[in-house]
Write a sequence for this structure.
């Protein structure tokens, strides 16, 4: 049985923090890091409600599909440590006129340090600056940490979606 997912929406008129947690830098998701993002995704989702990553457990396949079909690289953000380790990402997609957050992923050792909030906020700022007015996300029912993160940044569940 497929997991139940709910749609959340955010108006892009809010303000979000301006930077990354100390010791991290933010980069657009403009290519060259797909292998790293695939491994990050596998580690981040292992043992969670979203472990199947769509229809599989192969992060490289998920990243390749995102990049080929829906990627908005300019508004996606990747968090790296000062020595270049990728520890989180917010990957934005566009499909049939809808802008959405495809993935927010954080390396398990970096969870609860503000990385997810920082990459998501950076993507939201980039979307607002690009002229977008709203963004959607789909969250698996029971993924409480994602529900809290998205709610904190202004997303609200869309009833009946």
């Amino acid at each position: 049985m497929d997991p139940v997912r709910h749609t959340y929406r955010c108006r892009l008129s809010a303000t979000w923090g301006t930077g990354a947690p100390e010791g991290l830098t933010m980069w657009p998701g403009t290519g060259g890091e797909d292998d790293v993002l695939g491994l990050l995704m596998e580690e981040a989702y292992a043992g969670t409600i979203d472990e199947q990553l769509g229809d599989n457990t192969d992060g490289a396949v998920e990243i390749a599909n995102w990049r080929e079909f829906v990627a908005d690289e300019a508004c996606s953000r990747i968090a790296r440590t000062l020595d270049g380790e990728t520890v989180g990402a917010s990957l934005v997609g566009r499909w049939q006129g809808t802008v959405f957050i495809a993935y927010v992923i954080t390396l398990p050792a970096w969870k609860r340090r503000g990385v997810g909030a920082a990459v998501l906020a950076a993507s939201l700022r980039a979307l607002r600056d690009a002229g977008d007015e709203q963004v959607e996300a789909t969250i698996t029912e029971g993924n409480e940490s994602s529900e809290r993160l998205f709610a904190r940044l202004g997303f609200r569940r869309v009833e009946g979606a």
Remarks:
- The beta strands are 5-11, 24-28, 71-81, 86-95, 98-106, 134-140, 156-157.
- The chain is about 30% helix and 30% strand.
